[in-house]
Amino acid sequence: xxxxxxxxxxxxxSIRLAERLDxxxxxxxxxxxxxxxxxxxxxxxxxxxxxxSCGPHVMALEVEDTLVRLELLVRARARxxxxxxxxxxxxxxxxxxxxxxxxxxxxxxAG
Length: 111
Known about the structure:
Layout: E1 3-6, H1 11-23, E2 33-37, H2 45-49, H3 51-54, E3 57-63, E4 68-71, E5 73-76, E6 86-87, H4 90-106
């Protein structure tokens, strides 16, 4: 599995991040796992075609005591298996890395 990992967080940092993600209603129903929405413009052609049947498309973010881990697999919330589930493009990875960095900066979390 491919991941973007930010480690060496303080436990209080991960709590603040989880609280923000909960406030944004991005929780998955599993403690520490969040679904980050993706801009449709950066989805692949097949993902855009499957938005109505499989979407929304998301990337998983795991928040642990001292790290956050962004899974680089684009998932479909409505289906477990489909051709539209595949790894993010370099442009989408860059966008989501920036998104996560900005979120950490807003919370004054060194990452």
